[in-house]
Amino acid sequence: MSDTLAFVYNVYTDESHRRRGIARLVMDTIHAWCRERGVGSLFLALAAVVRFFHFALFEEPFLSLSSYAVDFATAFAAATLGYRTVRAHQMRTQYGWLMRASGPLGWRRA
User: Fold this and answer.
1) How far is the C-alpha of 30 from the C-alpha of 24, rounded, in Å?
2) pLDDT, tens digit, for every residue of 60-100?
3) pTM for this one?
4) What's the gap between Cα 98 and its chain centre?
């Protein structure tokens, strides 16, 4: 698998064009593009879903740009932390003869 990542920050279909499979077609095209170029991972930020949960559960405003930005930043930070944790573990275990731990999220040449 490649180290290359692709990020899709948001998918939105205008109300007048919904239920026609347009979003599915767009995502299928993105997946095909990533496969052709050897992209190993695709991250779809779910900030809009998180915003909906905050709206439904905590009665926060649904259409709030600042809240959406915070939700996106939190999801992005969690995904980045998870990726970095897995990568550091892979480098230390698969290349133990070459790499040593350099903190919980890092590695360095032995």
Assistant:
1) 10
2) 888 888 887 887 788 778 778 888 888 888 888 888 888 88
3) 0.51
4) 29
Spell out the residues 6+ positions from residue 53 whose beta carbon is closer than 8 angstroms to its own: none
Closest CA to 5 of 47, 40, 44: 40
C-alpha to C-alpha distances, 79 to 24, 76, 86, 95, 110, nearest whole angstrom: 23, 5, 11, 23, 28
**Residue 16 has what DSSP assignment?**
G
- Position 39 pLDDT exceeds 50: yes
Q: Where in the sequence is the domain holding 31, given as residue range(s)?
A: 5-109
Number of domains in the chain: 1
